[in-house]
Design brief:
The chain crosses the membrane at residues 20-39, 46-65, 71-89, 110-132, 138-157, 162-178, 184-206, 213-231. It contains 13 helices and four strands. By secondary structure, the protein is mainly α. The chain folds into two domains: 2-229, no CATH class; 240-326, Rossmann fold, CATH 3.40.50. The protein has a four-stranded parallel beta sheet with strand order 2-1-3-4. Helix 13 (298-311) links the parallel strand 3 and strand 4 (314-317). Helix 4 (67-85) packs antiparallel against helix 5 (91-106), helix 6 (111-120) packs antiparallel against helix 8 and helix 8 (141-157) runs parallel beside helix 10. The radius of gyration is 24 Å and the shape is globular.
């Protein structure tokens, strides 16, 4: 009697996992949360909600798993928490690592989806979405650029599902065009345009059957793409941060030029407020937060570009699109 019970226990557990929809709903929710962390704007409160939800679902799945998986999850949480405290990981990256780790541990048939979620936290996808956003003059295109990038990645891993992927993408495009023509806030428009692709992530996470995808070759391809994107500019941290701001000229705007030292106090890197680039150290970061006053003429901007390449500088320029005073 005991042997029969012990032999039937794994079969009963497997049947429960495959047929009971609640566990598959959790899988789908976790997958959609991972996609949402890439697509949702960081400024939205929904991003934090999705992040917390992903941690709760991950913990719930781990609690009802084998003890060895609990230890692995505990170690994973310690690692990502430590890296977060050291300012090496952002909220989307933490969520992507946790979600991908849980799916790889507990849902072997969802490993391709876990790889997609982890890959979505890379700078390469963000760069692709940025290039796409600036490639078209259509006002609605930036809304659907991230969903378009994610749809391409989905197609790479799930080519047999291209019809579903295309349908969800067209729905995202339609929503984006509608949002651009309405008076919705930008954050709300981004969320609505991203919903179809987030729901597509739920659909793939909810899938019961193994899709039998040869994901190893595709993972190698993604790694090569990431390395290629680093070829001319390998990721690095800056040794020092400079705030390049214009000198005070007695105008009303001068009051906006006084607080950068206070802002820099909250940055854990070495910083300095400057008005020229003569003494900038190599491999540092220059932030140009004010471009409504003319800092340089065109030849000097070209000189700055050459100087930045020679010194391996990272230059961040915050510009306005109104052409205020003819210099923005």
């Amino acid at each position: 009697m005991t042997e029969t019970s012990q032999a039937s226990e794994p079969t009963t557990t497997l049947y429960f996992q495959n047929k009971f929809p609640f566990t598959r709903i959790l899988d789908g929710s976790l997958a959609s949360a991972g996609i949402g962390l890439y697509l949702l704007p960081l400024s939205s409160k929904w991003t934090i909600f999705v992040f917390l939800l992903s941690i709760v679902i991950s913990a719930a799945l781990i609690v009802y798993s084998d003890e060895r998986y609990r230890y692995a999850f505990f170690c994973l949480i310690i690692v990502v928490t430590s890296l977060s405290l050291l300012n090496y990981l952002s909220v989307p990256k933490i969520g992507a690592i946790v979600i991908a780790g849980v799916l790889c541990l507990l849902r072997k048939h969802l490993i391709p989806l876990a790889i997609i979620i982890y890959f979505s936290a890379s700078s390469l996808l963000a760069s692709c979405a940025g290039y796409l956003s600036s490639s078209s003059e259509a006002a609605w295109f930036p809304l659907i650029a991230p969903p378009l990038v994610m749809a391409v990645v989905f197609t790479l891993f799930y080519p047999k599902k291209i019809y579903w992927i295309t349908a969800y993408l067209f729905l995202s495009i339609a929503i984006g065009m509608y949002c651009e023509g309405s008076s919705l806030p930008p954050s709300t428009a981004v969320i609505l345009a991203s919903l179809p692709i987030i729901l597509l992530g739920f659909r793939f996470g909810f899938e019961e059957k193994n899709l039998k995808i040869n994901y190893k070759v595709k993972v190698l391809l993604l790694i090569l793409l990431i390395v290629f994107s680093w070829w001319n500019d390998f990721p690095r941290s800056s040794d020092k941060i400079y705030f390049l701001i214009p000198n005070a000229s007695g105008e009303y705007e001068d009051k906006f030029l006084k607080n950068y030292k206070e802002i820099a106090r909250h940055i854990k890197a070495s910083y300095e407020v400057i008005s020229n680039i003569d003494s900038v150290e190599a491999r540092s970061t220059i932030v140009v937060p004010v471009v409504t006053r003319k800092l340089f003429d065109d030849p000097q901007w070209n000189t700055l570009s050459t100087y930045a390449k020679e010194k391996e500088l990272t230059v961040l320029i915050a510009g306005e699109h109104t052409n205020y005073k003819g210099v923005a």
